[in-house]
Amino acid sequence: MGIMQRFRSAGKLAPRDYSIAGFDNLEAGLCTQPALTTIDQQVDTLIEATVEQLLNRIEPESITLSDTPPQQLIDALLVSRESIASPRS
Hints:
Elements: H1 2-9, E1 21-23, E2 37-40, H2 43-57, E3 77-79
Parallel strand pairs: 1-2
Antiparallel strand pairs: 2-3
């Protein structure tokens, strides 16, 4: 968001002059002008899956020395907003 302000101070505007995306899908990205495109890591889903895996690991009947930690992929999501322009031809 800070870089958007610096560009604006220099007379450059997103997405006319540049495209920009953020990370973490912060609520503040909705307050920028234009609204900031961002990556949502689905932190709530990641935390829920992690806690579930930890709770499953501390159940006495499921713990063995040969157990390998379960793995789960949580996809990040692109949240498209106004700060990204369509590719130019």
